[in-house]
């Protein structure tokens, strides 16, 4: 494994990646990222506080990890679902309708809602993750970002 990672760093190939905390994707494969996470400069600046995942014909949305429903309802004009997970994490999904209510427990992989049209020009799910109240890239938890690898410095 270490040799494969070192080869990947030297050659620029993709390194093997494992998902942080064992999360699964909220929609069926493939998982094309239609719009990436863009961190805002300040909490009130423009940005894209999540990722838009192409869903194809899939309408089932699943919990990426076990948790408890934090919110299920409408925000402005979109149906939104949020799930509280361990470690100070909250995931959000839109536009998603759900029969679940605040306080309902969910298991990893459980269907938690149904994707509705309207967020993107194609069928897509907006998936956000907050860590202790601050938005972070969902790819950190889905195993889609290779870990940084520190290499030893060369002696002169």
UniProtKB/TrEMBL annotation:
Keywords, sorted A to Z: Signal
Protein name, entry field: Peptidase M23-like protein
Top-rank taxon, per record: Bacteria
Domain called M23ase beta-sheet core: residue spans: 47-138
InterPro entries reported for this sequence: Cell_wall_metabolism_enzyme, Dup_hybrid_motif, M23ase_b-sheet_dom
Organism listed in the record: Salinibacterium amurskyense
Cleaved signal peptide residues: 1-19
Alphabetized GO MF terms: metalloendopeptidase activity
């Amino acid at each position: 494994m270490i040799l494969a990672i070192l080869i990947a760093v030297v050659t620029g190939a993709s390194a093997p990646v494992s998902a942080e905390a064992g999360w699964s994707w909220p929609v069926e494969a493939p998982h094309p990222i239609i719009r990436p996470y863009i961190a805002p400069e300040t909490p009130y600046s423009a940005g894209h506080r999540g990722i838009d995942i192409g869903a194809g014909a899939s309408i089932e949305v699943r919990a990426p990890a076990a948790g408890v429903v934090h919110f299920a309802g409408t925000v402005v004009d979109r149906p939104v679902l949020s799930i509280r997970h361990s470690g100070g994490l909250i995931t959000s999904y839109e536009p998603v309708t759900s029969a679940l209510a605040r306080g309902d427990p969910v298991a990893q992989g459980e269907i938690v809602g149904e994707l509705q049209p309207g967020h993107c020009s194609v069928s897509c799910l907006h998936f956000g993750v907050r860590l202790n109240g601050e938005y972070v890239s969902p790819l950190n938890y889905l195993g889609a970002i290779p870990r940084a690898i520190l290499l030893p410095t060369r002696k002169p």
